[in-house]
Structures are given as structure tokens and as C-alpha cells.
Amino acid sequence: MRDHYVHMKEVLKRYWLVACRESELGRKPVGVTVLDEPVVLFRTGQGIHALRDVCPHRRVPLSKGWVKEEAIVCPYHGWEFSGEGVCRRVPGLMDDDRCKKQIRVTALPVRVRDGFVWIKLREEPGGNEEAGGSGTKEPFDLSFLRDPSLYSFIWKVEVKGNLVNAFENLLDGTHTHFVHAGLIRTDSNRQQVSAKLTAHRDHVEIEYSGESKQAGLISQLLERDRQTSYGRFFMPGIAQIEYRSRKGLSMLITAVARPVSEAVQDVYAIITVKRGIVPNFIKRLVIAPFFKTALKQDLRIVELQQNWIERCGEGRLVSTEADLMRPFIEQLTKGRYYEKPLEREVQLLL
Ligand code: FES
Ligand SMILES: [Fe+2]
Fold it and tell me: Ligand 1 centroid to 43 CA: how many Å?
């Protein structure tokens, strides 16, 4: 997996990656780690800025400093840097004009959209991003967060696992009978489901049909009739599960990763439901505990897997046809594009 990570990092750096939510960024600077790179985010009157989180003077993290007017101040000797990373002041130096011009911190491109702050760790040379996937040009589309007919709530979890294993877990149906026994599905109560996978450029979707409501508690309590459901993986680390009834969308679960390091992902989990007569806070009160329980069960199993891999290495994994999503997540994170849509269909007992 080590080689995969080294390679994946370079691929992911070309994409817009989530740095934080807008609401997490107040007046104080915030330090985050994205693909092992320390990044500081801060607000000035001009907007939100992202710089490499290190002072070039003596390598102190700028995120431990503060914002003064349009600049971030290093907490050690007070050097000041603008949102573009240009040094504005070297306190103590009689004439700091000459050296200021040469001192810089790397500034990263920032986009603020639908309540999330996105950054890019590497710009394509000459701004030519034609070769990349859609996520290299624009941050992932979360505009459903603005849809007045939908209600979403978001929370953040830390996953101790590599990106491929974390996302395979989210999108894999075959573990749900065991890890979430009784909550999502049960082993003794399976249905034949047809799973049709389509890989497009830099995302992959599985459409599940023929499955009615599941025997698990979540399904029984929260779903009407299930018609179709979808599992999707998008570069650079976004998963989506969508349940549809005859009346349209019943629930959408979106997981957006901030890849921290090889073994850690911060994931923003967004649960979206239709607005209706039941007040939103009640919906949240009812739904959240189920998802938090399911999430805890997943976090545990992925961490067990990660610990084992760190001790003994991943080696060659044995897979079957039922592990539909895995090879595509691996390929996409290695930088492969599916120029022509690729399709695959299997029958599963879910
Ligand atoms: S380390 Fe930042 S000003 Fe000296
Ligand atoms: Fe799970």
C-alpha cells in the first residue's frame, strides 16, 4: 500500500480537496493536515486564505499565531504574511523593505463553496487542467446543501484507515450483515439484488435494483419502500449512498474525505433527507443515533484492519466478484481515467 499512497498523493494533489467547513473557521487561524502537508487557513477582510503552515524564519507553525488586519502573524518573532504569502513586516529590523520582498510562504488556491473550504495542493503547470478529471477543475458539487426541499446535517469523524479501505468500507454492502447486524441488514434474511456498475471518467456508480426494504432497524424505521439505491465513489475521496423510493429520494449519505495521511482520513458525513411535515430537529434526533452507531461499528473494523496492515503489511488481497467497487477505487486513486464508460453487472445476495 505504501507505493500506492506515494503515487495517490501526487494524483490527489491535483484535485480540489476539502480543508474544513466555513463554520469551523472563526477569527483564529486553523491548522489542518492534508496529505501530510501542514496547511493554515485564516480569514481576513478579503476572504479565506490558505498558506503552508510554517514560518520560513525558524519553522514555527503559523496556525499558532493570530490574524492582524490583512495578515497572519507568526507567534515567535512576529513576522507578518499576507493572504498571498508575501512577507509584510519583519519586526526589529530598521529597514525591512528589502528583505521583505524576498520572503514568502507558499500560498494555496482556495475556493469556498456550499459551506466548505476547498484547497488545491498543486496547480497544473500553466493552469492546464484539461488532462484531469472534473474534480481538478471545480470542487465536488455539494449544491444539494442549498436545495430548499432538502434538509442536511453534517458531522465529522476521524477514520483510522487508508483511503481505499475507508471508502471500500463505506460503499460495500456485504459487510453490513455482520458489522451492522440487525441495524442495516441481517445474514439470515437476504434478498437477491442486481448490482450494475458503471465507471465514468473519474467516478464510479453502482445501481442496486430488486432490493426491497431491508430487515435491519434503520430500514424498518426510516424507509418507506426501496426501489433503487446507488453507491458512488468520486475522486478525490467522496462517497455517496442514495436510497430512492417510488416517491423519489428518501435519503442521501455523502462522505467527503480530507485525506490527512496514509493511515488517517477526516471524513465529513452529510445526511440528507427530504423536508416534510416532521420538524427537522426531530428527524435529526431520530436519525443521528442510528448513523452514529453504524459509523462507530465501521470505524472499529477499519481500525482493526489498519492496525493489522501496519504490523504485517497488506500483501495481496483475495477478492471475489462481490467486491465490486474495490478495484475501481484502487484504479481511480492511482490516476486512471475511464475514457469510455465501463460496465459490469453481478447478482448479489444482500
Ligand atoms: S519563527 Fe516566525 S518569526 Fe521567527
Ligand atoms: Fe458499514
Answer: 20
Distance 234 CA to ligand 2 centre (A): 18
For the whole model, what pTM was predicted?
A: 0.94
Q: Which residues surround ligand 2, an ion (CB under 5 A)?
A: 298
**Ligand nearest to the backbone CA of 180:** 2
Can you state the angle between helices 326-333 and 2-12, rounded to 10 degrees? 60
Rounded CA gap, 185 and 169, in Å? 15
Digit-coded pLDDT (tens) for 238-267: 999 999 988 889 899 999 999 999 999 999
The CATH number given to 143-349 is 3.90.380.10
CATH code of the domain occupying 17-119: 2.102.10.10
Predicted confidence (pLDDT) per residue in 6-31, tens digit: 999 999 999 999 999 999 999 999 99
- Which tens digits make up the pLDDT trace of 83-104? 999 999 999 999 888 888 899 9
* Most ligand 1 atoms within 8 A of CB, residue of 52, 54, 57 to mutate: 57
